[in-house]
Amino acid sequence: MGVRLEPADEYLHELGPESNFNESMYINCFDPAQQVGGWFRMGNRANEGYAEMSVCLYLPPAADGERRTVGFMFKRPTISNNDALDAGGLTWTMVRPFEELRVDYTGKMVLLDEPEQMTDPKTAFTNNPYGECEVHLTFTGQGRPSMFGGEPDTPHEAAGNEFAKGHYEQLVEATGTIRVGDREWQINGFGLRDHSWGPRYWQAPWYYRWLTANVDRDFGFMASRVATKDGPGTRGGFVWENGQLHLCDHVELRTVTRGDEAYHQSIEGLIRSTKSDREWRFTGEVIDLIPLRNRRQGPDGQWLTTRISEGMTRWTVQSGPFAGRVGHGLSEYLDQIIDGGPVGIAE
After folding, report:
1. pLDDT, tens digit, for every residue of 121-130?
2. Cβ atoms within 10 A of the Cβ of 275, count?
3. Pairing mode, strands 234-241 and 183-199
4. pLDDT tens-place string over residues 33-56
5. Residue 63, pLDDT score
6. Whole-prediction pTM value?
7. 188 Cβ neighbours under 8 A, 6+ residues apart
8. Residue 156 has pLDDT above 80, yes or no
9. In 3D, which of 179, 53, 70 has the Cα closest to residue 118?
10. Which helix (H) or strand (E) is 125 found in, with range?
């Protein structure tokens, strides 16, 4: 199966006929010196008349003895076309394909000392304080050789189970400013960006684990485990090491969870490239976690609930030339919620 990825794919695609057509960009970053970072997402659902706009910031304590804080905002601003990623105060600007883009946000966000309150969004948004937020970040990548993915030349998803017609990722560096209230940080960190387009239902995967990590500009990885309800699913990702992209075809994960809600707390993993005859082992400890949800009414009228737990994570490389090095990134755990619990708890 061939995969196409052209500079034109860095921009928005023609709006498809599917009612659930989605074009989204996502990016995360973390500054290890200041222990501050976050992620941003805009998903255009023009045929449904709205965009999904998310901004999430993981903030260090303001003073000794205080808790870390997670700032969050989600909106569904009205849109009528797929001409731009610019709604709800969040704007994406492509500067140079495969090399540079900007993300800017101006608006409010709810400030959560206990981010797990977001399991009930209405209560969380009602009972917590807000702060004014301003973000101006520039993300730079290392060109076409550092890109992973694209659009397959043959369909790879069954009708009704679509998640993305085309999808690619890239490790990036981040510079700029983040301001929340009267606190401001000059950011110098690393992250990962993601761009996808095509019909999407958040209920299509049975569960998935998506891990992104950066040690520095010379080493990072993305590990993905996607499970389907009736099949084996997929395991894969990539490792970026000293200017070379290793395509990986196998991932093994062991997760330790906490509490009755079974949020992920620590991770042991292995990612392998058969082509390169290499494997890399890693461990992760979640620093901050916020659980988000998506709900959709199924054909039988019942509501389907999906939980997406977003954990800012400290990664330690356990093997290879970067063994012992520490990096940061996101661990995103998506689960369908059945009988009150996440379906992927065994992995």
Report:
1. 999 999 999 9
2. 10
3. unpaired
4. 999 999 999 999 999 999 999 999
5. 84
6. 0.96
7. 31, 33, 174, 175
8. no
9. 70
10. helix 121-127
Question: Domain coordinates of the chain in residue numbers?
Answer: 13-201, 204-347
User: Which amino acid makes up residue 250?
Assistant: H
Pair of tokens at residue 235? 């395991």
What is the spatial distance between Cα 321 and Cα 146, in angstroms, rounded to a whole number? 19
- What CA–CA distance (Å, rounded) separates 336 from 72? 22
- Paired with 103 in beta bridges are 92, 137
The tokens for 245 are 């992209």
Q: Which of these CATH numbers, 2.170.190.11, 2.40.370.10, 3.40.50.1100, 2.40.128.270, describes 13-201?
A: 2.40.370.10
- What whole-number distance in Å separates Cα of residue 173 and Cα of residue 345? 33
Backbone angles phi, psi at 321, to 5 degrees: -65, -20
Copy the structure tokens of residue 258: 């906490």
Question: Model confidence over 291-300: pLDDT tens digits?
Answer: 999 998 887 8
* 3-class secondary-structure state, position 144: helix
**Which is nearest to 192 in space by CA: 52, 294, 73, 332?**
332
